[in-house]
């Protein structure tokens, strides 16, 4: 399918470089473009494969009708001028994961996971549990490595576990999964899609090309997940329904208690929902309750997702840098019943912090950071909470050090993207952990 073509790859990053390497030596003429210079080692490797590299700010000038296909980095907005021109010229537009899908060997089973919150945790748990149970399994997508870079190592009869973001799903055409999981859906990335309806439609593509032989695992309590799955052809299984649920004693699959809460090291209702979704996937491949219990006895969660960092003088520090939207921070706030010092703010996407109002009871003080600093300060005043104008994470942590008392919780859960200051949310979380380590 992607042979003997003239191909333009928009955006390098990991996925652009990986797909360029995958398509080299297939008699393709490939140009890769980015606004920033590549690392010297990447540039050298690509040039050795005969790939032309153009570093250019205004990439729209490169688009013309001579290209057979254009491969877009998921970060490029669907509403952008460059995408509009590509569509105007009727050039096939795909992304890296769509291309790589065509090179998978026969017999590969694909489990795809998406959702506004919880998808990385569910993806990680599915992958690790399948590994524990002895299956040949590969992890990729929005977590770990681009699918293109994994193709050479994927054998027949492998289970491929992929985290899929709305950005990735937006540009797929033929890619489809055997099992699709939707953890939940709530408003996010509206600047990228233009409105919430388009965001939901992108998420719905997790069921792309599904038939009755494919399985959809859906959160029954989440109205928007139910809405997007109403007309799909997949066989459906639900969690948070009368068959698969949790209570204050344990986790139930088909009304049978499979785990007690004492079996589970991580806590919080969001984590119990993530476990339910995971187990509904696992039971389609194999079931060893002792191995499952052993896994959850030891699983401590995923980095930057309500990650316990350290306890200092009976003060607990939690890194929830991945909470880049309001809904994720609500989940974090619902987890604790001790006084919370909340670090809030980041990239200003017009988020309404007042959506947090009903969950702020345990918040002792707010520390405003990022480009939303002034709005967060005003928000704190509006709800009569102690609030500090910190602007930066290091200033927030310095102020927190003055204020904390035994039994308190320090929570980095910003309800905002990190990209006003950091390249990615992991960088913000790592800085938080480094500061805690020195306290």
Structure description:
The protein has 439 residues and is of the alpha/beta class. The chain folds into 3 domains: 6-94, NAD(P)-binding Rossmann-like Domain (Rossmann fold, 3-Layer(aba) Sandwich), CATH 3.40.50; 99-298, Mur-like, catalytic domain (UDP-N-acetylmuramoyl-L-alanine:D-glutamate ligase, 3-Layer(aba) Sandwich), CATH 3.40.1190; 307-437, Protein-Tyrosine Phosphatase, Chain A, CATH 3.90.190.20. It is 31% helix and 22% strand. The chain has helices at 13-23, 40-48, 81-88, 96-101, 119-132, 166-169, 190-193, 196-204, 223-228, 269-282, 289-298, 326-333, 373-382, 393-403, 425-437, and strands at 6-10, 29-34, 52-55, 69-72, 93-94, 109-114, 137-141, 159-163, 179-182, 215-219, 235-239, 245-246, 250-253, 256-260, 307-312, 315-319, 340-344, 363-369, 386-391, 409-412. Strands 7-8-6-9-10-11 form a 6-stranded parallel β-sheet. α5 (119-132) packs across α10 (269-282). The chain is globular and about 65 Å long. The model has no long low-confidence stretch (mean pLDDT 95).
Question: Layout of helices and strands, plus pairs?
Answer:
Layout: E1 6-10, H1 13-23, E2 29-34, H2 40-48, E3 52-55, E4 69-72, H3 81-88, E5 93-94, H4 96-101, E6 109-114, H5 119-132, E7 137-141, E8 159-163, H6 166-169, E9 179-182, H7 190-193, H8 196-204, E10 215-219, H9 223-228, E11 235-239, E12 245-246, E13 250-253, E14 256-260, H10 269-282, H11 289-298, E15 307-312, E16 315-319, H12 326-333, E17 340-344, E18 363-369, H13 373-382, E19 386-391, H14 393-403, E20 409-412, H15 425-437
Parallel strand pairs: 1-2, 1-4, 2-3, 4-5, 6-8, 6-9, 7-8, 9-10, 10-11, 16-20, 17-18, 17-20, 18-19
Antiparallel strand pairs: 12-13, 13-14, 15-16
């Amino acid at each position: 399918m992607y042979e003997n073509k003239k191909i333009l790859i928009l955006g390098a990053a990991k996925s652009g470089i990986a797909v360029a390497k995958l398509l080299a030596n297939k008699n393709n003429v490939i140009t890769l473009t980015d606004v920033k210079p590549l690392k010297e080692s990447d540039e050298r490797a690509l040039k050795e494969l005969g790939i032309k590299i153009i570093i250019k700010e205004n990439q729209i000038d490169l688009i013309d009708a001579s290209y057979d296909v254009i491969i877009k980095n998921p970060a490029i907005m669907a509403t952008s001028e460059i995408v509009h021109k590509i569509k105007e010229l009727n050039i096939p537009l795909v992304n890296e994961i769509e291309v790589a899908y065509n090179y998978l060997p026969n017999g590969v089973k694909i489990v795809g996971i998406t959702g506004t919150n919880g998808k990385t945790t569910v993806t990680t748990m599915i992958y690790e549990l399948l590994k524990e149970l002895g299956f040949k399994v590969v992890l990729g997508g929005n977590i770990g490595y681009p699918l293109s870079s994994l193709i050479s190592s994927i054998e027949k009869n492998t289970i491929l576990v992929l985290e899929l973001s709305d950005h990735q799903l937006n540009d797929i055409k033929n890619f489809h999964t055997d099992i699709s999981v939707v953890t939940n859906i709530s408003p996010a990335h509206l600047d990228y899609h233009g409105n919430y309806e388009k965001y939901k439609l992108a998420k719905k593509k997790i069921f792309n090309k599904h038939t009755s032989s494919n399985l959809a695992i859906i959160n029954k309590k989440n109205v928007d997940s139910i809405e997007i799955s109403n007309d799909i052809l997949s066989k459906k299984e639900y969690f948070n329904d009368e068959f698969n649920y949790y209570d204050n004693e344990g986790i139930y699959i088909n009304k049978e208690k499979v785990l007690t809460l004492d079996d589970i090291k991580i806590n919080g209702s969001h984590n119990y929902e993530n476990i339910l979704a995971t187990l509904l996937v696992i039971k389609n491949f194999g079931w060893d309750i002792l191995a499952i219990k052993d896994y959850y006895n030891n699983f401590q969660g995923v980095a930057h997702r309500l990650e316990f960092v350290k306890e200092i003088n009976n003060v607990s520090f939690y890194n929830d840098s991945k909470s880049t939207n309001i809904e994720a921070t609500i989940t974090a706030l619902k987890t604790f019943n001790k006084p919370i010092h909340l670090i809030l703010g980041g990239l200003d996407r017009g988020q309404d912090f007042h959506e947090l109002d009903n969950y702020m009871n345990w918040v002792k003080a707010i520390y405003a950071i990022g480009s939303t600093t002034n709005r967060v300060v005003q928000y704190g005043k509006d709800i009569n909470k102690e609030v500090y104008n910190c602007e930066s994470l290091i200033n927030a942590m310095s102020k927190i050090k003055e204020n904390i008392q035994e039994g308190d919780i320090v929570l980095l859960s910003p309800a905002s993207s990190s990209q006003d200051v950091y390249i990615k949310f992991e960088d913000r979380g790592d800085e938080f952990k480094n500061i805690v380590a020195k306290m």
